[in-house]
Amino acid sequence: MSNAVFNFPKTYNEPVLSYIKGSPERVKLVAALKELKSKKADIPMYIGGKEIYTNEKVDIHPPHELKHKLGTYNKGGSSHVKQAIQAALKAKPAWEAMAWQDRAAIFLKAADLLAGPYRARMNAATMLGQSKNAFQAEIDAVAEWCDFLRFNAQFMRDIYADQPISDPGIWNRMEYRPLEGFVFALSPFNFTSIAGNLSCAPALMGNTIVWKPAETQIYSAQVIMQILQEAGLPAGVINLVFVEGRTAGDIIFNHPDFAGLHFTGSTGVFQKLWQTIGQNLSLYKSYPRIVGETGGKDFVIAHPSANPEAVSVALARGAFEYQGQKCSAASRAYLPASLWPVIKKKLVTDLKSMKMGSPEQFDNFINAVIDEKAFDKITSYIKQAKKDKGAKILVGGNYDKTSGYFIEPTVIQVDDPKYVTMCDELFGPVLTIYVYEDADYKKVLTILDSTSPYALTGAVFANDREAINLTSERLKHAAGNFYINDKPTGAVVGQQPFGGARASGTNDKAGSIMNLYRWVSARTIKENMNPPLDYRYPFLD
Ligand code: NAD
Prior knowledge:
By secondary structure, the chain is an alpha/beta fold. It has 2 domains: 24-294 and 505-525, 3-Layer(aba) Sandwich (Aldehyde Dehydrogenase, Chain A, domain 1), CATH 3.40.605.10; 298-484, 3-Layer(aba) Sandwich (Aldehyde Dehydrogenase, Chain A, domain 2). It contains 16 helices and 25 strands. The strands form 8 sheets. Strands 16-19-20-13-12-22-23 form a 7-stranded mixed sheet, with helices on both faces. Strands 9-8-7-10-11 form a 5-stranded parallel sheet, sandwiched between helices. Strands 1-5-4 form a 3-stranded mixed sheet, with helices on one face. The termini are far apart. The relative contact order is 0.13. Nicotinamide-adenine-dinucleotide (NAD) binds next to helix 8 and helix 9.
């Protein structure tokens, strides 16, 4: 099938279904939730295409319903990491030799399986395992992962089509080889689509992968593997292991064939991994590619010319959807005194109207935070804020972990714009607000820019064009994704390529062509159609 230059199917964003009462998608989703809850899963690792079960079974519970057991996963150790590396290296020659259109077809098929027969199961697994409501699951696990799969296939073709010019008698070509060795995909808990993308993006470019997900995302990780297997992904291309991060790191970062790290997670972990890779550099056959999208302390700043109602809604959605556990979630806001009374009234009313509980109850906007560690960390800041004089809890502030890890959407107003919850990433349903005097807008821009080491997302609300331009310019390096009159979350693949700067990551823009370039090492080929037969140049005469 190499005797053709293939066209590519038109790429599009997967439509987000509404899940309104009575809709066919809601009926299917409810049935899938019921089915998953009626069973006890026993989730294996997938190494070299084989399902691997071990004697170490770890229970999986929904974060919002701790007494229910969804099943177990099979925990592995060092030997499984070694087997996964071997399987990846064994699968590599055939996989990288496979024609690009066949690799694309596998991932395009995976997208269609996900959008079709697997849609309800994938959403149900994400809702139960990661405590997302139906809409949050749909925009992540289905829509965004479909988009990653489809857009990346198109980007791959665009990369391959990018060829150098040639002088007469010469044919220059560029071959986009996968990296030599294997790639380590290390994914976080909060987005099923990211877990899918960290492993699939390098695989699409001809690499083979050892993938370790977060422990709390394993329930939906299995659905990812099931879809990929059904789509025809050959054995060993993506090997999924359930081991401690350190166990994986100890083996992988000491392996000569380690060729790249595709990471999303916290800044502290990423910095440690980078240090380890740096220390081990002389061990590797090539310089490993390091791609890491990490933490954020994402801001909303409103100018006095802003629409206060729009600001309030952006804060309600941007800070509290998925319990604030989005890397892009608004967690600090700078609001002008003149607009504050209107914003505050609407925000407090809206937050009080948000119901909290299981995602199986469709009217719950707020569900549980991911685990006890996250619960304890987030609530420790709330406890402290209750004690601190310069901090006032405007709404929320209650929490309970008896049946699930529930924390009310909480707003803290602070006197000091550098108060700890304006600086640290809490990664939970807590928004901190600093109200400034209208005349101090420019000063506040300077404070905002220097408050946190992160630079992931941020938003300005204003109707005054000069203010928008000033803010955009002054905060140029404060966010990799900058929003004007919109909340700072909800980036869509192909529309707003995603990634931050400063301590927020390498900014290789997931879901864009830039990311895929990191997973290839180009080989330039020059072919001379008529090589010279005499070493003498004419000038020698
Ligand atoms: P995390 O850093 O705790 O974990 C990420 C992955 O690294 C997990 O698989 C974990 O098991 C593994 N890990 C942890 N310690 C390790 C070690 N010492 N060695 C090897 N592996 C190790 O992150 P998380 O809690 O799962 O996710 C939340 C974080 O991710 C937040 O900081 C959030 O901002 C960030 N995030 C960023 C983006 C982005 O695009 N910038 C997107 C999503 C999440």
